[in-house]
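ok, trying the design again with the full structure, not the truncated one.
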């Protein structure tokens, strides 16, 4: 068995990431997830040439904002997620929530967590339970610094 035959393809790593997070292909489509090549990641971020998953951000009208972060498939350092430098801190609004109803009613419960995938997982679980909670995700702690 050669070394090259033991390597895992970016597509297989992407599939493993979905499975690890209990995301279906339908979830990935709803979230607008996209497998990026090294070149595509570099083009999106302006740095970091790694195979990655693009995670687009949505506004409270469920429209893409044009901002995206990436989940690096094989991190070379402890940095697993990245975004364009000096792009600021952003709030992730899972696109399956009717955010307008939350903006109009401050009494509705809102959960705040770190990360896009966690916020979507919470929203998905809550929907399955028939609860009225929603969740937003904050990007990692380094996104909130200077």
């Amino acid at each position: 068995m050669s070394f090259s035959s033991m390597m895992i393809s970016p597509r297989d790593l992407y599939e493993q990431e979905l499975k690890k997070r209990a995301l279906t292909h339908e979830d990935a489509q709803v979230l607008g997830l996209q497998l990026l090549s090294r070149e595509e990641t570099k083009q999106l971020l302006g740095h970091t040439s790694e195979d990655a998953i693009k995670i687009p951000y949505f506004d409270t009208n469920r429209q893409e904002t044009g901002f995206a972060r990436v989940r690096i498939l094989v991190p070379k350092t402890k940095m697993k997620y990245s975004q364009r430098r000096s792009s600021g801190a952003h709030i992730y609004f899972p696109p399956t929530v009717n955010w307008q109803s939350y903006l109009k009613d401050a009494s509705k419960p809102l959960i705040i967590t770190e990360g896009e995938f966690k916020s979507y997982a919470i929203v998905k679980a809550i929907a399955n339970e028939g609860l009225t909670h929603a969740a937003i995700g904050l990007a990692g702690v380094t996104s909130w610094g200077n």
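Keeping the full-length input from now on. The first strand starts at residue 34 and ends at 36.
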